[in-house]
Specification:
90 residues; 13% strand; globular
Length: 90
C-alpha cells in the first residue's frame, strides 16, 4: 500500500534530521496517512495512541517502521494531535 506523500524525518544516510519544521511536517503527514488508513490516532495524557482498523495492523506497522523511531517525538506528536482536536482526556 503506497504512502500518502509523507517522508520519514531522515536524511539520505538514515540520520535523523535536525530541521524542526521538516520533522513537524513529517509528523503531520504521518498522522494524515494513519487517519486515511482508518486508524484512530489520539493524544492521551502526554503520549498518544494509534489503533489500527481490523486487518490493517501489518500495513500500519510498515508505515510506522518507515517513519522511524518516534519515542523522542512523543511530545511533538501529542501536540500535533491536540492541535487537530484528536485528544482523549484522562
Amino acid at each position: 500500500m503506497p504512502l500518502l506523500g509523507w517522508a520519514a524525518p531522515r536524511d539520505t544516510d538514515g540520520m535523523m534530521m535536525d530541521d524542526l519544521s521538516e520533522t513537524l511536517n513529517a509528523i503531520g503527514a504521518l498522522i494524515d496517512d494513519l487517519l486515511a488508513t482508518g486508524c484512530e490516532v489520539v493524544a492521551v495524557g502526554r503520549g498518544y495512541c494509534i489503533t489500527p482498523p481490523d486487518g490493517m495492523e501489518r500495513a500500519v506497522k510498515e508505515r510506522l517502521d518507515r517513519f522511524g523511531p518516534r519515542a523522542h517525538l512523543m511530545s511533538a506528536i501529542n501536540e500535533r494531535l491536540r492541535l487537530r482536536g484528536l485528544v482523549v482526556e484522562i
